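Case study 2.
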Amino acid sequence: MTTPQTERRRRADPLELVLGALGAPRRFIRPWYLAYLLLGMVTAGLLPVLLPLAVEAQSHSLAAVAYVLGAYNFGLLSSPLWGMSAERTQAHHRLFVGSFLLTGAGITVLLLFTALPLWLAGAFAAGAGSGGAATLATLFVVDFAPQAQWEARIGWLQSFNAAGEVLGLIAAAAVSAGEFAAALWGSAALVAVAAAVGGIGLPARTAGSAQPAGSGHPPVHARLDIRALARFPRLSRPSGIGLHVDWLNLRGLRGVSGALDTPFSRFLLSWFAFAFAVAAFFSYFPLMLAHSYGIDTHASALIYATAAAVGIALYILTGRLTARYGAGRIYRLGLWMRVVGFALLLAPFLPQVGGRAVFGTVGFVVLVIAWPLLSVAGTDLGASLTPFSEGAAVGLLNAALALATALGIVCSGPLVAHWGYVSIPVMALAGLLIALVLGRTPRPPAAARR
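Prediction:
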């Protein structure tokens, strides 16, 4: 039986859990994890760099970049529908493979057509497929594997995806000189390979491995302890997209009214404000770094890849820091790091400030490596401050993060088109300061602290 003291000791040393997972890869790795690695290459590595460059090259409109990437992020919001469909129809396998096919179809539409409405439809489809693959991948763990193996399996699963992100960014650096169409066709081909590989070694349903629809019991993922999973490297784009493990459920929605005017609601607003504030930068970064700081897309993709690789290790360190200093302090530290990053990006726009490339490079790196602090500490805060279930709380955080990112991207389009790239760090700093004010004293309730 696990005692509170044992649980505190387990949370205080996440490195031990990671080492345990690393020591037995054959137990926890499956062939279909390769499909998730390929998805990471495309959706977290290649598309963030190539898609804004390709849209701007075709449309010559900065606003169009925002609308297309906003449509992609609105597609990610379909993640709950994939989860509900899988658990109601028990068609996990078909939906998983179908999500890859939908992603590839969306990329193909972006390549074959030049009309903005069709671009928006293609981007939405690609985002919806990506969100579906992420949701189904996690369900294959929490609905089919024993609960004792969740942490290790998801740790490996998301590490595969994070490795794919780094590989994708390196590939984007190699093809960012202007061969956007060929690179995007290559992305569609990688997704097709992922669809083929994604059916290999998927778990077969066994008695008790997953709860059938209509059983009267909540699905196992609704009780998943997200705070434990946050110790591991996970697919969370440094822009702030985290879609895995939990989502909104009806019980959580009914309890939202009871969360008003509570520490949780103020933290949720802070979370939304920071995601909204920084969304524009991570949509425009290859264009902004090239035009405003003289950092070409090859260099920016390599910088991104290096910082993302460092960020994987930071997930483990952040888990230890959160256990020692508290999630509130680490969350605010992450916000301040992003304030510093955007202040560095804003400095070259001021009169008589040189070294634009240095400011751009350092600011970019600081922004990327701040995300593990925000992701782990923010998840922990949401789970500990919630007045209702942890699953519903983390679902609200995921929904707020995705919605704020999508809205932030779309709203930034006219601002960038009218005032230029200087509007991005100004908008970010304003939103981050609001997030800091709203999140200045988030403390878990007494019951949670015990």
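DSSP finds 19 helices and no strands in the chain.
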